Amino acid sequence: MAAAKAKMAARTEERYQREKAGYDEKIARRTAKEEATGKKLGGKPPKALEPGARDTDRINLTDKESRIMPVAGGGFEPAYNAQAGVNAATMRVVAVGVTPAPHDQEQVEPMLATLQASAKVLGAPESLIADSGFCSE
After folding, report:
1. Is the same domain home to 112 and 61?
2. In degrees rounded to 5, what are phi and psi of residue 62?
3. Average pLDDT for 57-68
4. 57, 78, 99: which is the final residue of a domain?
5. Rounded-to-integer distance, Cα 104 and Cα 88, Å
């Protein structure tokens, strides 16, 4: 249990640092915009992050690589996030990937790397079609 608690604390800290970097960037952009215009921006500023564990920071003791992810209909379950690269003309799956990351936002680049690795056999990817779940900076 001590090892599981330590791992959960490490994951919590890793998530917090990742989110804090994004929060700090938003605040810096907001401050720069206010200084450039000389006016206070309207709307609410981003909510400050609170350190510490959340419901989603749990650890699975039986499958250590899975992550607790939100599921349709509410609640959370230990799960993985699967991605597939498909040839749009033939509708054949040409690349697959599985990750413990709960969101698709960071999965385009790994899938493109998988496709590039098989470019000698499949040919280089010429276009990309993805839904809005993959949208990120």
Report:
1. no
2. -95, -30
3. 77
4. 78
5. 19
